[in-house]
Amino acid sequence: RKESSAASDVYKRQGVHHLRGECGVQQGDPAAASMFATGQQPVLIRLAKRHERVFIVAYADNIFLVGDVESCFQLTTELIPAMSEDLDLDIQLKSSWVHVPAWAHMTSTPDIYDDILAKFPSLRGLPVQLNGAKVLGCPLGSPAYTRAETDKLASNIISLYDKIRDVPDGRIHFQLVKFCIHTKFQYILRCLPPAATMEAATRLDAAACGAVMTYGGWPAPDDPNMTETPAYARGKTKLQLPHELGGFGLISLAHVANSAYYTATASYVQWLASDLPNVTKFATFQFNPTELRASKHPFIVDLVAAHDYLRRLGANDSRSMPNNRPSYGDCDDGQPPY
User: Fold this and answer.
1) What is the pLDDT of residues 66-120, one digit of tens each?
2) Helical residues (DSSP H) of 6-64, grouped into ranges
């Protein structure tokens, strides 16, 4: 718990104040996140062994419990004191949430939820998000919820262009648009299917091009007197073309939405395959319906679903192509197919 006791100098108008850190790590320490994850892992593993019906996923200070509500609640009642006693960490119930996909169409929680809460009265303050929830910043839930959240995110990103309109240096203005603002939606493109992101991506493309063009003296894209002349259209094309084709490399989010999602999905399949125990017999992706598809392990189920999804999109196993690679276990680079 006590990682550092080194004094830090804080400068104020009244002089220098010495603050002595007695626990944790210094602000900005790059090892902090890894140390935090390492500290909580034994607690989570211990609980996972006692609750085999719950799948625990943890990323930094975010912990997700996947399973039926009652099993997750039972684990939560043990997780709270365990984190407090072992790590001196308090879980904030008000900042946590419950989401049950089967309840997404409901306007209120079903009666069965009250019966479950009666068994776990200490969790009554846990918010229930019926329509959906954000997992590591990505909205997951009903189509209406996902669309509303992506639209909200797009609007927040677009509002940032007003904050840089008065930047005096044109090159700095363009770099802020290209590298700092326009890239904020790329993470969502990798996480959600194109049908859920295309509309927002198109809005963001127009806003990014409009911000640069307006800065250069063109009328604002939302100006009622503005008509997209051939010259304006050529300007937008020039902005979005890659450097090797003579453009400015302001990547069109709508143009890469499909490839971003499908590539991320393929990479996810690789990661699942490389992380599964005894994966070599599965990594050839020659699925045995009676063996692999019957598995209830969350990783196996996810692997099968992702593989089938890519197949439906027309993806090919690398071994079905010319110059077939050797089997997974014999690969020099240790990489699974795709």
Assistant:
1) 989 999 999 999 999 999 999 988 988 888 999 998 898 899 999 999 999 999 9
2) 32-50
pLDDT tens per residue, range 214-263: 898 877 655 555 556 787 788 888 999 998 988 999 999 999 998 898 88
3-state secondary structure (DSSP) of residue 302: helix
Q: Which amino acid is at 225?
A: N
Q: What is the rounded distance in angstroms from the CA atom of residue 129 to the CA atom of residue 123?
A: 15
Among 31, 68, 26, 27, smallest CA distance to 51 is for 68
The CA distances from residue 310 to 58, 259, 270, 303, in Å, are 26, 12, 12, 11
Give the integer Cα–Cα distance in Å for 155 and 211.
14
State the Cα–Cα distance between residues 254 and 107, nearest whole angstrom.
33
* Tokens 């709270």, located at residue: 80
